[in-house]
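Propose amino acids for all 230 sites.
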């Protein structure tokens, strides 16, 4: 028997499972719900006090960091647009975007730490936990992948020693295809890099030296192997 509305029109269920059920067919098994991160549907705790902006008088900020943040803020009509470069500057000072680093940036920018935390957790080049004060990003996108970038990334990881304050990770694209395979070492692009050179690169970072001098983008006399020196 087909259920009907009071006006005589047939009720048509939009859900196929519900439609079969209404028609007397055996109920179908529900589709498994995909797993999601814990807490994704947790509602906001409205009993907590509202987020506040740290008092600049109570937050000690290194003078050089304060100056750099203020310089970034001066470039934009909305000071919040300086969040990314300001957090990157704090990360260079602290090694990661620690609660202390975020509080310092918040005090200078006059925003809440919660706002800055939302930025940190969105952008994966900002670290919400200590992973290494120095970084080596190995590009593994198409151009680099075709030139054995995976072997380079594996060699960089293998060259690490216990206690190294270095974050080695694979990166989808660093936009320097003509240097493939290449990597970004603390903001300096070097390439092409052979996997056999990975121990030298890691050792240089560990010891505070410039990795592969003359092989970095912008180095004096830098040229790609297939280019003719002028």
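Proposal:
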């Amino acid at each position: 028997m087909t259920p009907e509305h009071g006006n005589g029109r047939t009720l048509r269920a939009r859900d196929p499972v519900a439609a079969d059920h209404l028609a007397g067919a055996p109920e179908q098994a529900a589709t498994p719900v995909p797993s999601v991160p814990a807490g994704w549907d947790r509602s906001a705790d409205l009993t907590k006090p509202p987020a506040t902006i740290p008092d600049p008088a109570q937050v000690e900020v290194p003078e050089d960091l304060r100056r750099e943040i203020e310089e970034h803020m001066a470039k934009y009509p909305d000071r919040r647009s300086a969040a990314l470069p300001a957090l990157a500057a704090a990360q260079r000072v602290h090694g990661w975007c620690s609660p202390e680093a975020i509080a310092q940036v918040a005090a200078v920018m006059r925003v809440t730490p919660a706002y800055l935390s939302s930025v940190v957790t969105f952008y994966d080049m900002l670290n919400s936990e200590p992973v290494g004060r120095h970084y080596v990003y190995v590009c593994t996108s198409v151009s680099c992948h075709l030139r054995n970038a995976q072997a380079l990334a594996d060699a960089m990881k293998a060259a690490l020693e216990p206690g190294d304050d270095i974050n080695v990770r694979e990166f989808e694209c660093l936009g320097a295809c003509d240097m493939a395979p290449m990597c970004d070492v603390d903001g300096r692009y070097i390439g092409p890099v052979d996997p056999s050179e990975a121990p030298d690169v890691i050792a240089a970072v560990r010891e505070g030296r410039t990795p592969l001098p003359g092989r970095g983008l912008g180095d004096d006399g830098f040229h790609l192997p297939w280019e003719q020196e002028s």
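The domain at 56-120 is CATH 1.10.10 (Arc Repressor Mutant, subunit A). The longest strand covers residues 134-139.
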